[in-house]
Each structure stands twice: as structure tokens, then as C-alpha cells.
Design brief:
Helices cover about 50% and strands about 10% of the residues. A 7-stranded parallel beta sheet has the order 3-2-4-1-5-6-7, sandwiched between helices. The chain starts with about 25 loop residues before the first strand and ends in a 15-residue tail after the last helix. About 40% of the residues are buried. It binds guanosine-5'-triphosphate.
Amino acid sequence: MDTMDSEPASSSSADPLQSIPKSPVVVLMVGMAGSGKSTFMHRLVVRLQSQKKRVYTVNLDPAVRNLAYPINVDIRDTVNYKEVMKHFGLGPNGAIMTSLNLFATKFDQVLTILGRRAEMLDYILIDTPGQIEVFNWSASGQIICDSLAVTYPTTVCYVVDTARCVKPVTFMSNMLYACSILYKTKLPFVIAFNKIDVIPHDFLKEWMEDFEKVGDALSRESSYVASLARSMSLAMEEFYKNLRSVGVSAVTGAGCEDFEKALGEAAQEFVDSYVPFLMEQRKDLEEKRQQAVEEQLKSFEQNMDRAKRGRDQLEEDMQNLSIEERELDLMSLG
Ligand SMILES: Nc1nc2c(ncn2[C@@H]2O[C@H](COP(=O)(O)OP(=O)(O)OP(=O)(O)O)[C@@H](O)[C@H]2O)c(=O)[nH]1
């Protein structure tokens, strides 16, 4: 990699946190449904591979139909979300969340797979479902983020549909989501204002730099949400100040160079700021992670009681959940 020197975990100190390697850099692609996460993942895979970077991909969206990029670990190989709908009597949204929760309880298997490949990789790109609440309050988001971040430099790429943000209320609600994910994960963050081939993102930059401008735009709307957003806009200033944001187009590739630069800076921030934070908070974080896994398992037990299939069958299914790597084309790793 250009920005980071590879350094195997075992080479530095005995403290596992001090010996977090500088690569592979993990990029969690997060954003609302339709913002362009998967298309942007594809764009990055192609770009990074053409730069001879070694890229590994993980898909965490159980309901996605087609993905254009090669996938190395795919939640769909482990959890059938339509079966989850039937088992737990859920609708599509609930089934996606539950599938991810099931997968998260076995996330140590993903870490084992990644651990086998880590030394030969520069990037691990992770696609996630548009159910953004996974990263706001669901246990699975916490388990996934925390497990990755104690092992690899981990960054969040928050993808925003620029064209939809012409509505200031949509912009504000996107930013409030982003803010809550940033404060929850505390991970280095890059906002990718996507679809700039449709509309340039300059107006969003202006809104972020001058809260009065977004206030003006919001004052043209009279809904309850608009007045709530208006009162939040000043409070968001502090959040914007510490934010890296880049305009990109997943379709044309515009802005991707700037994005890659921002990603390098975010990975450096992980080393400079997040690792010391981790070392300070380690006990607390580990307890929280354990607690999240236990709560998740408990909630499955309760759901099992209500589920349509027999409890024994469901318990057996859960024990058998096994996460496998897809057959690896080493050439595709560059
Ligand atoms: N014009 C334009 N369209 C884009 C761009 N990126 C994505 N799209 C389109 O936006 C739609 C949604 O893109 P996806 O990549 O499926 O979005 P996603 O965030 O993965 O969606 P979910 O899986 O529902 O969460 C598709 O029709 C894409 O072709 C872009 O940069 N420009």
C-alpha cells in the first residue's frame, strides 16, 4: 500500500492492541438504502485492484440480489433471510436485522478467515445492508465494529445520496444518522457524497460550513421535522468540524482519488487516535462486546419460544451456522 506499511501483528509488542497491524485497512460501507454502497464498493474494488492493491470483500447484506464485485465472504452463504422470515415470523426488514444478528454471534469465524488472509491484503471492504439502524443501536453492528477494530485499522465510509439531499430535511436526517454512528463507533469516518454525476455536492459543503445556510433552507419548510432539524443545525456544527467528506460518483469514478486519500488519512487517524483510546477503554469495550453477544443470544432464545418452528430445531440450526470463505481466486487479490 502507498499510505501504510504492512507490519505483521506478531512483530511488535506482546500487547495485542499495540500490535494492531497498519494494514489491511478495513472499510465498512454504511449508508441508507439506495445511497450507492454496493456500486461504490464495486468502483473501489476495480480501482484498487488496478493499482495492484490486494482487496478482500465481505458482503453483510443478506437480502441483496446481485453484486457486481467478486465476494470472498458472503452472509448469504450462511443465513437464508427468507428462512429467517419464516422461522421468526418476521417481515423483510426484521429478517435482515435478525439475519445479521445471527451472523454477528458467529463473527469470530469471519475474524479467523480474515486472520488467515490478512498478511496478503491491503484492504478489506465490507458491504452492509441499507438498514442503517444496524450501526445505530443493534447489537450486531457493535459486535462487528468492535471485533474488527481491535484487530485491524477500521474506518467507516458513510455513503450519502447527494441528489436526495437537495431536500434539507433529508440532508439533516442523513447527518444525524452519521453523527450517531460516529459517536457510537468512535471510529475514523469519511463521508462519501455519492452521485455527483447527477448533482455536484458543493451545496452540501456550504450547508456544513455555515449552519445559517442550512437553517435558511430549512426555514422554507414548515413541517415539524424541519423545525426540529433547524434547532439541531447549530449543534451539528461541532460534528461537521471533525468530519472528512468527499464528493464521489460510483458510476463515473469522479472524486475517487480524493476518497482514497481521505481513507489513508482516516487509517492514520485510527493509529494515532483510536488505538490509544482502545488501550484506555479496553476493559470497558471488551465487557460491552461480551454483553452484546450475550444479549443477542438471550433475545434469540426468547424469539425461539415465539418462533413457528420447534425450539430444538432452531437451536440446532444456530449451532450449525458456519461461515465459509468462497473459493478464492488468488489472482483476484492482485
Ligand atoms: N447516477 C448515479 N447512480 C448511482 C451512483 N451510485 C449508485 N447509483 C445507482 O443507485 C442505485 C442504488 O445503488 P446501490 O449500489 O444498489 O445502493 P446500495 O446503497 O447498495 O443499496 P441497498 O443495497 O438498498 O442498501 C442503483 O440504481 C445504482 O446504479 C452514482 O454515483 N451515480
